[in-house]
Design goal:
Layout lengths: L4 H22 L5 H7 L17 E4 L3 E5 H12 L10 E4 L10 H11 L1 H14 L2 E3 L6 H8 L6 E4 L13 E4 L2 H8 L4 E4 L2 E8 L8 H12 L7 E6 L8 H9 L8 E3 L4 H9 L3 H9 L8 H5 L7 E6 L6 E3 L7 E3 L3 H7 L6 E6 L7 H16 L7 E4 L4 H9 L2 H6 L4 E2 L22 E5 L15 E5 L2 H10 L11 E2 L5 E2 L21 E2 L33 E9 L6 H4 L12 H4 L18 E2 L6 E2 L1 H10 L4 E5 L11 H8 L2 E6 L4 H9 L3 E5 L13 E5 L10 E6 L5 E7 L4 H9 L2 H7 L2
Parallel strand pairs: 2-3, 2-5, 3-4, 5-6, 8-9, 8-11, 9-10, 14-15, 14-17, 15-16, 17-18, 22-25, 25-26, 26-27
Antiparallel strand pairs: 1-7, 4-21, 12-13, 19-20, 22-28, 23-24, 27-30, 28-29, 29-30
Helix pairs in contact: 3-5, 3-7, 8-9, 10-11, 14-17, 23-24
Length: about 750
């Protein structure tokens, strides 16, 4: 069964006509990303040549996907919107709340019992409002979307930062906060700054131990975690032919680590084959009939420098396996350099755990290639030095891999098969270790490796690699093991060189699944009552935030001045805190607990200006709130990097933080702050960050004349009585200023419906 088939038929019936009309208006050839964007204008009459990276544009996405951790807050907001059903096809995926501990046989039943209240809530809301529901164990949101929902030329938003995974099948797929998702779910315009376009031209063909993962790991080393901000990466070139659709999805998935809006590949034979192998022959037929508009125009490919803001050339013949890390995904290291770089940087060179899976690398092809490496160790009696953990991407992948013996190949070298869920990738890992503060190294096929993210240990040096290299490193137990040149020792003392990985792109016998855990939307459930207990510590009905009082913010105490990288992991930690994602009051206790205080280099230890004591960030914020005092956060570059979790914006808002003043913001987080009625401001002169002192009282001047492009003034009143004024800027447009004045975007929508 093809899900949402009527929507797909309607979409493809008008897609090429929409693109052709856009070309008539723009009067020049279009890139593929532009074709998809212009075909999804909220109002066709608004179409014009927008200024990239500057103009805000209203779009009409085709669908919404939500994972269970973020779906709770998104759907709690949707319930306040007064709608009877969602305006576009939507789905909920229960993949984040399942802890990896012993193995799927015990972990899944445990998670189902522990999270019953949340799963029941999500299931009932999904039934009531006509949303598809994928239960616990069904799979990781992005793999399930790729297998069932993604389609060439479409546009979707998802409440997870790795939603761009669907770009591997030719979609504009953008990670957003829950409030953005609610805009789409209620049929309102979805606003996005028109992205810049980075063209990535791929030549040649991957070979040896190199995998699609290594392409994006290399690009991360080139662009860094900020290099793709407010941009779409559009891939082209003859090198695309040799990369499978799931490989392309891997590349798009980790484009999120560049800060990119999304990434996209054009439609090709690989995409056609993927659609047909996943039971969507009719969608493949539609796509072939629209093929000229599921790629850039020929003129673009002939002279790409005329149409893209930046061009990156990658010779796939020269790409070698990478290990990126530790602590940031853009610290790119070709494996051949690790023998020098590792000891020079005092990395722990013995690898204790290797983990394969996550939304980035858990396809059938990924597991098949990893299994081809594992099979060699088993057959040649090579001891495996590191623990190996596997998270399949979906129940369809798991069921097929089990039937084909792939999971057995991995189990034979000691691999533990965890639930089809995110698990360790998002901190849902009960790691069995003698000391969770000990310095150690792990290697994963995941997408992020921020400090503490996987296991909570600040001294775990986490490195990112492709699944093939991850398996080889598990066998060798060494961070500097290069399987292309190095050997491993078997049980008899013989040195053996591992063969290059192999593996089918698709299962020779086709995919199989017995029960995929899916409950389809139904028109007959509108009378379902959603019950949230007032005594619940996991779910809490949302109360609207207060509107702006019409005055400048005055004499706000500094809550914290953060130092260095401050991701959404630092602002609102995952791991054990995931259980409170539906309860804003309870989860606010983790506010900024991972951020480093610039004045004492400690985490979760700030000065409360009311009593002079040092305490947890949330405790100081609560003290200010209880005394009806607003507060402010000061931060450095790329504040809010990482996951799309809007809790990182809602928590400070809930605790009366009114302003985040940073050197720069990550795209999703800046939008989330705006949606919740907060001020997201940036220094005109970044050096002014240094002027902020611990005991400052801070005012924002100019809010009564708040307008697009107009700077505001921050007044720092120091403890010695002296004051300093610094100029700050913002990116708010008229609509976003209206959100601020109303108290939130949802308040504004409710007032103007």
């Amino acid at each position: 069964m093809i899900l949402d088939i009527e929507m797909l038929r309607s979409f493809y019936a008008s897609y090429s006509e929409s693109v052709d009309k856009a070309k008539e208006t723009i009067k020049r050839p279009l890139t593929y990303a532009e074709k998809v964007l212009f075909a999804h204008m909220y109002e066709n009459a608004d179409l014009k040549l927008f200024k990239r990276g500057v103009d805000y544009v209203n779009f009409r996405p085709d669908r919404v996907a939500m994972q269970d951790a973020t779906a709770q807050m998104a759907l709690l907001q949707f319930m306040n919107a007064g709608k009877n059903k969602v305006a576009v096809p939507a789905s909920v995926h229960c993949d984040h709340l399942i802890r990896a501990d012993i193995g799927v046989e015990k972990d899944l039943p445990s998670a189902t019992a522990t999270n019953k209240e949340v799963y029941d809530f999500l299931k009932s809301v999904s039934k009531k409002y006509h949303i598809g529901f994928w239960g616990p164990g069904a799979g990781i949101i992005h793999q399930v979307v790729l297998e069932n929902y993604a389609f060439p030329g479409g546009m979707m938003v998802g409440t997870d930062s790795h939603t761009p995974n669907a770009g591997g099948l030719g979609m504009i797929a953008v990670g957003v906060g829950g409030a953005d998702a609610v805009d789409v779910l209620t049929g309102q315009p979805w606003e996005l700054k028109m992205p810049k376009l980075i063209g990535v031209r791929l030549h040649g063909k991957l070979s040896g131990w190199a995998s699609p993962k290594d392409v994006i790991l290399k690009i991360l080393g080139i662009l860094t975690v900020k290099g793709g901000t407010n941009s779409i990466l559009e891939y082209f070139g003859e090198g695309l032919e040799s990369i499978s659709t799931t490989g392309k999805a891997t590349i798009c998935n980790m484009g999120a680590e560049l800060g990119a809006t999304c990434s996209i590949f054009p439609y090709d034979n690989n995409a056609d084959e993927y659609l047909r192998n996943t039971g969507r022959e009719e969608v493949a037929f539609f796509a072939k009939n629209n093929i000229k508009n599921l790629r850039a125009d020929d003129e673009v490919y002939a002279t790409p420098e005329k149409y893209y803001d930046q061009i990156i050339d990658i010779d796939l013949n020269e790409v070698e396996p990478h290990l990126n890390g530790p602590f940031t995904p853009d610290a790119a290291t070709p494996i051949s350099q690790m023998k020098i770089k590792g000891p020079a940087n005092d990395y722990p060179m013995d690898v204790e755990v290797a983990l394969i899976g996550s939304c980035t690398n858990s396809s059938y092809q990924d597991l098949a290639r990893a299994a081809s490496v594992a099979r060699q160790a088993y057959k040649q009696n090579i001891p495996v030095k590191a623990q190996l953990i596997i998270n399949p991407g979906s129940e369809q992948i798991r069921c097929t891999a089990e039937r084909d013996g792939i999971l057995d190949d991995l189990k034979k070298i000691g691999a533990v098969i965890m639930t089809n869920a995110c698990g360790p990738c998002i901190g849902q890992w009960k790691r069995h270790t003698d000391d969770n503060n000990r310095k150690n190294a792990i290697v994963t096929s995941f997408n992020r490796n921020f400090r503490r993210r996987a296991d909570g240990n600040p001294n775990t040096f986490a490195f990112i690699a492709g699944p093939e290299l991850t398996t080889a490193i598990a066998i060798s137990g060494r961070l500097d093991f290069n399987p292309a040149t190095d050997m491993v020792c078997d049980k008899d003392g013989n040195y053996v060189k591992l063969d290059e990985p192999t593996g089918y792109t698709f299962p020779p016998k086709g995919f199989t699944v017995e029960n995929n855990g899916f409950i389809a939307p139904s028109e007959s459930n509108g009378n379902i009552e959603i019950i949230i207990s007032e005594q619940s510590d996991r779910l809490q009905k949302l109360e609207p935030f207060a509107e702006w009082n019409g005055e400048d913010y005055k004499n706000m105490p500094l809550l914290i001045k953060t130092k260095g990288k401050c991701t959404t992991d630092h602002i609102s930690m995952a791991g054990p805190w995931l259980k409170f994602r539906g309860h804003l009051q309870n989860i606010s206790d983790n506010l900024l607990m991972g951020a480093v205080n610039a004045f004492n280099d400690e985490s979760n230890c700030v000065k409360d200006q009311l009593d002079g004591e040092y305490k947890e960030v949330s405790s100081a914020a609560k003290d200010y709130k209880q005394n009806n005092i607003d507060s402010i956060v000061i931060a450095e570059d790329n504040y809010g990097e990482g996951s799309s979790r809007e809790h990182a914006a809602m928590e400070p808002r809930f605790l009366n933080v009114k302003v985040i003043l940073a050197k720069s913001f990550a795209r999703i987080h800046e939008t989330n702050l705006k949606k919740q009625g907060m001020l997201a401001l940036t220094f005109v002169n970044k050096d002014d960050y240094d002027k902020v002192q611990e005991d400052d009282r801070i005012s924002i001047s100019g809010l009564t004349a708040f307008a697009p492009g107009k700077h505001l003034i921050v007044i720092l009143k120091h403890n010695d009585g002296l004051t300093e004024e610094i100029e700050v800027e913002h990116t708010y447009n008229d609509t976003q200023i209206a959100w601020f004045k109303a108290g939130s975007a949802l308040n504004y929508a409710r007032l103007n419906k």
